[in-house]
Amino acid sequence: MSSNSANSYWKANLKIVASLLIVWFVVSFGAGILFVDALDTIRFAGFKFGFWMAQQGSILVFVVLILAYMRLMDRLDAQYANDNAAENSAHSDEEAGQ
């Protein structure tokens, strides 16, 4: 993997992590603490929604975020594996032509 390819891979990885951390913060801190009074006006499965989000919802969202990270990183790895394979193929063709 070239230096430019490695840098762009790392930047894409950090972008994925940052966006998932923002979602995690909004759900766990926002829905569980900041917006709990507004969410408590909604009922979900017999409980106030703010309470439910603080107790169960944020855990479920965290598990979904783990699965989303896994899927996004699989795609990113596949993309850069294909780029790396094409780069290696071009390099092999150059060596064969010499």
Please explain how this structure is put together.
With 98 residues, the protein is mainly alpha-helical. 87% of the residues lie in helices and 4% in strands. The protein has a two-stranded antiparallel ribbon. β1 and β2 form a beta hairpin. The chain starts with a helix and ends with a helix.
Write a compact overview of the structure shown:
By secondary structure, the chain is mostly helical. It has helices at 3-34, 36-39, 49-97, and strands at residues 43-44, 47-48. A hairpin with a 2-residue loop joins strand 1 (43-44) and strand 2.
List the defining traits of the structure above:
single chain; 98 residues; mainly alpha; 3 helices; 87% helix; 4% strand
